[in-house]
Amino acid sequence: MTEPRQVYLDNNATCKVSPTVVEAMLPFFGELYGNPSSMHSFGGKVAEHVTRAREQVAALLNASPEEIIFTSCGTESDNHAIRGTLEANPEKKHIVTTKVEHPAVLNVFRFLAKRKGYHVTELGVNKQGDLNLDELRAELTPDTVLLSVMAANNETGTLFPIDEIGAIAREKGVIFHTDAVQAAGKIPLDVKKLPVDLLSISGHKLHTPKGIGALYIRKGTRISPFMIGGHQEHGRRAGTENVPYIIGFGKACEEAMNGIFEENNQVRRLRDKLESGLMSQIRHTYINGNPRWRLPNTTNIGFEFIEGEAILLHLSAAGIAASSGSACTSGSLEPSHVLMAMEVPFTYAHGSVRFSLSRYTTEEEIDYALATVPPIIQRLRDMSPFYDPKK
Amino acid sequence: MWDYTKSVMDHFSNPRNVGRIEDANGVGEVGSLACGDALKLYLKINKETGKIEDARFQTFGCASAIASASALTEMIKGMPLEEAEKITNDDIARFLGGLPEQKMHCSVMGREALEAALANFRGVKIEEHADAQVICKCFWVDEHKLRDVITENKLKTVEEVTHYTKAGGGCGGCIPDIKRILADINGPEAKEEPAEKPRMTNLQRIKLVTETIEKKIAPMLRQDGGDIELVDIDGYDVYVKLRGACAGCPGARATLQNIVTETLRREVDSEINIIEATK
Q1: Which one of A89, A116, B43, B211 has the fewest CB atoms closer than 10 angstroms to its CB?
Q2: What are the b/e assignments for B152-186, b being 16+ CB within 10 Å?
Q3: Count of pairs with CB atoms under 8 A, one residue in A, one in B
């Protein structure tokens, strides 16, 4: 019997670890064990590699190396950006974000509102998941200290125009943070051109193992340290460096930068093939999110009359990994906060499935998905009291 | 991923009795698209023998909703009506070797569909409980259903009620009403949840912070030649000036700050932040 086929289409959750990244990390689990802060050659040698990795991460964003600090994950980067900014700028009490942020931002804002007395504005989105920039501009007041808007949405892939948003923030004198965890490496990000002050990224969305992130802090941005202790990361994030992962992150950023155009063209072509194939084979399907301005690797499709968890489990039995904004998959009872904010109709909000590709996704895998998904959808619809095959 | 039993996965992957019965004489429909699950149950009942000859279903829902419906039809096929009437949601869950707690509402949906189908067979309109007040407006659960499910399943906490009926799982606005109903059924002594530590008012907190600094922290620091001055309190942020024995030494400073933070968090509130006033 042959092994059942495994097709991984959940790359926005996490992705396959790059073998060359692991290879770059391995010496730092062994002979290169020095502490980069030490005043001897054991440390010095390692420090050189950490410096190189910082340059590689900075290069992905066109930042200066000293504007990059390493963190443990994207969530830490977001927390640091938000809470560090507020601590360093205690005089203002209004902060603005969107309803569709990742919980690593949204729940921090809600905590700040509930427990720290901040006045929080959560901007809504339209049915395509887009922000209204006039509304955003109107919300930024003299008391507003921080605006946090994600670069790309993790569920739908919808891109926010962070260039325009940053320009508005700058005009209003508001510090601008963007959670670019999903966007980095998938679309070009150039902080010399983008008016962002703070930008979060995460390693495992760029094919490193889990446990590393980074925060870009534009030179001159007032921010308090998140971890207090030693002088690492220029005193902005204390704690002995997670050297192997920093080295891996550097390598991963280099690989992402080298491949960003070719790979994304391939990824986009496969994504489009999957999406148009499913849309043409299966009736009553809808794309969630902005079909034009979105990540090249993501499609979020609503299948009407059926429920997401049932789809995912059938897909999983057929070897296909995807994810869903359905209520039942998370254990909450309502569909995802992103789909709810977009007012996706209930007829397909519960049956929404996100397929997210990576550079490792192959044509054969997409062909397999195109052959496998439609019968699963049909099978569940045949069971559904809301599905009328004649319509 | 959910930890489903083999039986749940079997009934989900190979559901029994899917479809309609064209000449059904008992049809029950519960749930809706908005709620995220729905079940339509078709029964063919032999009027002479009083037995359920055939049962089929259509469902919109997750794996446990599909499995619960499949299990229900297997259980009731060939069953006399009087027996079928006695089936509880727990019987359905047990038939499947159990359901995750958060999915118990799927078994409740099965029992409700059966109740509705049997009422439809008898030609009685299922009591609308027009007088019953809708408690949960997100999932449209009325007080009558809540009381039934709480009593039948001996539920004690709001969380359990949400797992079984979904009530309280949306905006959460009805949670005080659910608590009231729980207390009403289980008696006030059935404390459903550990009482939250009452939150201090700002005034109380300011008073306690001041007292703790004066009576506990300052004497401790003075023993070692240091001192502390309270500058301001803003919510949970406490602004202080610290004077250590070796002022200016960053290590000593961090230690001092740790002592102050730990003491205030223990004595007053775990959310307290100590901020060194710079001026």
Answers
A1: B211
A2: ebebbbbbbbbbbbbbbbbeeebbebbbebbeeeb
A3: 86
